[in-house]
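Per-record layout

source: Cellulomonas persica
name: ABC transporter permease
length: 599
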Amino acid sequence: MPARTPGGRWSAGPSHPGPSHPGAARPRGGRGRDRAGRLGRGTVWTVAVVVPLAFLVAFFAYPVAVMVGRGFVVDGQLDLSGFADVFSRPRTWRIIGQTLGQAGVATVVSVLLGVPGAYVLYRHRFAGRAAVRALVTVPFVLPTVVVGVAFRSLLVEGGPLGFLHLDGTFAAIVAALVFFNYAVVVRSVGGLWERLDPRAEQAARALGATPWRALRTVTLPALTPAIASAASLVFLFSATAFGTVLVLGGLQFGTIETEIWVQTTQFLDLRAAAVLSVVQLVVVAGALLVAGRARTRRERALQLADPGLVVRPLRLRRRRGEPRDDGLALVRGATALTALVVVLLALPLLHLVVRSLRVGDGWGLDHYVALSTASGGVTVSVWQAALTSLRTAVDATLLALVVGGLVALIVSRRPRRPAARRAVAGLDALFMLPLGVSAVTVGFGFLLAMHEPFGLDLDLRRSPLLVPVAQAVVAVPLVVRTVLPVLRAIDPRLREAAATLGAAPGRVLRTVDGALALRAVGLAVGFAFAASLGEFGATSFLARPDSPTLPVVIFRLIGRPGPESYGRALAASVLLAVLTATVVALCERLRRAGEGGEW
């Protein structure tokens, strides 16, 4: 029966107050369940925030603070005279200039070569495109020590490019940095270019613009956020490169990163190392600020594209009967340049394999056979070091996946309150700092801080978990940057619909966020595993003599005189490169075109 409402109107609802009415009585226990649900959700999100923050404070902020504090605290008092002392040295300004110069030139060259590569590999369709993408990505995840060894074998006297006399020069270091960071530009710019709405460029062409003018005035401005983000990341990675610069440049072309290592290990000058760590932190903070703003603009640009629009890759060959396109020369030029770069990327790796098979005046597998013996100043065999690296990388990857996954989950939320939005942005920035802070500072800080940490009667320096924890600190930002874009792209209405249908918060996370981010998680696991497998800066301080990792063994073999040690270092580098390349190949199989994170 219709019921009269308090305002005198008739409604078709029941005459008794139902649950949908404002004054309706809730079912017995309903308020208690709602309150318990809110408390449960609050507890879950609190734990999700506290666990990563505790990890960051205990294993990053605290060791770095102890390391820097040792340089600025003298006899229990703050002493900042180290800044004046360090900056009065001509060597310091030379090191800073070399760092900025190498990183700046490497960034410019990487962008100039990477943008055409992104166009060819993400806007065109050809046989073997997936294989070329994987090949381009391999250098980025290769350990920096392997990159240094590969270029050194290519440029030394007697090598294929020895006649150029580039060994130990500024140009060799820049070439190695471009080799390492080319994939960052290709993947970052290509990911946006692949999903860019082509109708704006087609409209410009229809109005009479030439292909080059349409590219310059329409497409490139739309790609500016991705290009700026990639450039800032390349600068960051180049400014903090350690193994590559140490192997190729030695002490003549050092950077802030290698100088911190020299001041710490050779001169035991912690005050100078602390000052340089602060200088590097300032440079890194600036690069991260630019990268963060560019990344935000990139995400906004991605939202401009129509999700339902199918952007078909262009063909490299013109069909019969089609009118000749004036832009074909532009396409051919980009294709030729990309093909040349791919060949140059493959050359150091191929030569590394060839040199590892060179035995005296002949050829053989002697260096690979010697990997099973402990000699050349190394207490374990290379195979034992490889197993240690694999076990350590597994532990570091699991830890990085848990911490980085929680950070990505929290940061992917879009709270309505401005204060909450600023807190989320701050959390995102905090967990990016390990990307740029010197791994040497982190490693040496572990040695100083893990003896009675926080005043506890513990000595964690001998713990086998110290190395994977240090590697996880470096890998967490990679996990966050890989998973976060996918989580942010999820329509919030999907979560709301699942919750409306009665799904608990845990089930919503599992069936919505987890299902859609599954492939990105697989890619994050691969990147974290590869990064942990090749980490050298912090591990060089923390690895015990009886259980060194593979990059540490390679560096020790390089420093030993004699062709046998060098040959074993080459063979061990090939082994490490094969392991990382296998991981990358598996990651590419988990990633469909256009999916995944930034890299």
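summary: Residues 261 and 440 are 6 Å apart (CA to CA). The chain has two domains: 91-236+250-256+291-356, 361-436+471-599.
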